[in-house]
Automatic annotation (TrEMBL):
The lineage of its organism: Bacteria, Bacillati, Actinomycetota, Actinomycetes, Kitasatosporales. This is phosphoribosylglycinamide formyltransferase 1. It is an enzyme of class 2 (transferase). Belongs to the GART family. It comes from Streptomyces pathocidini. It catalyses: N(1)-(5-phospho-beta-D-ribosyl)glycinamide + (6R)-10-formyltetrahydrofolate = N(2)-formyl-N(1)-(5-phospho-beta-D-ribosyl)glycinamide + (6S)-5,6,7,8-tetrahydrofolate + H(+).
Length: 237
């Protein structure tokens, strides 16, 4: 199996796969720190400069079981990878289809929209963005007083827990059964990208605004959201 992504979620997933006896054929990341962290595991970590799809032939030649895990991955898989015969599975921070897009933005609007649940989703990757078949999920409630940084971090934990619980099934070709629709999963799906941040002003007077935008210690890692908030009027900072 091959891993594509970045950050602690990527390195933890690789280490867990190795610790449970799975062969990891390689990892692809755009972060030099990840490559350094993975070097101690014996896994070859390749540098991705801009487009993961330029590595499709190399990935196909390296992957011994045909499985590619996308973990905390912002790169979009296109035809070169999707048509290569590799089976690509993504661990998404958010429930699909209602939390498509950037998790950092989806969490923000989940709180502003008064949603009662968040979580993580395992889905097969197709040509769309977060549109492939849902295979498994891990849900958790959003407490009434939850703050942004708490929900986002709980989502990160849910992602790793979901990876751990589905690794054996995916590796063995026994895909989990898709969960039935539940709770707010019937809500109208949106795509939460950076453009969604332009709608923040409409929520400025919402009682949930302060906690929904409380980035906490995560602020330095979320420059786009911190910047959008900083550009709002002093009245709503």
């Amino acid at each position: 199996m091959i891993f594509v992504g970045r950050g602690a979620l990527l390195t933890r997933a690789v280490r867990h796969a190795l610790s449970t006896g799975h062969r990891v054929d390689g990892a692809y990341t755009d972060d030099p720190a990840d490559r350094a962290a993975l070097s101690s595991t014996g896994v070859r970590a390749a540098s991705v400069v801009s487009d993961i799809n330029t590595h499709a032939d190399r990935m196909r030649g390296e992957c011994t079981d045909g499985v590619v895990w996308s973990v905390n991955n912002w790169m979009i898989f296109r035809a070169p990878v999707l048509d290569s015969g590799l089976r690509v599975y993504n661990i998404h921070n958010g429930l699909l289809p209602q939390h498509r897009g950037l998790p950092s933005v989806a969490v923000l609007f989940a709180l502003l929209n008064g949603e009662s649940e968040y979580g993580a989703t395992l889905h097969q990757v197709d040509a769309g963005i977060d549109t492939g078949p849902v295979l498994a999920e891990r849900r958790f409630p959003i407490p009434p007083d939850a703050r942004y940084h708490q929900v986002l971090l709980r989502g990160v934990r849910a992602c790793h827990e979901l990876f751990q619980s589905t690794l054996e099934a995916v590796a063995g070709g026994r895909l989990p059964t898709a969960p039935p629709p539940h709770g707010n999963s019937a809500a109208q799906p949106r795509y939460y990208g950076l453009r969604s941040l332009s709608r923040l002003g409409a929520y400025a007077d919402d009682p949930a605004f302060a906690r929904a935008t409380d980035l906490g210690a995560l602020a330095p890692h979320l420059p786009e959201i911190a910047g959008a908030l900083a550009r709002m009027t002093p009245r709503v900072k």
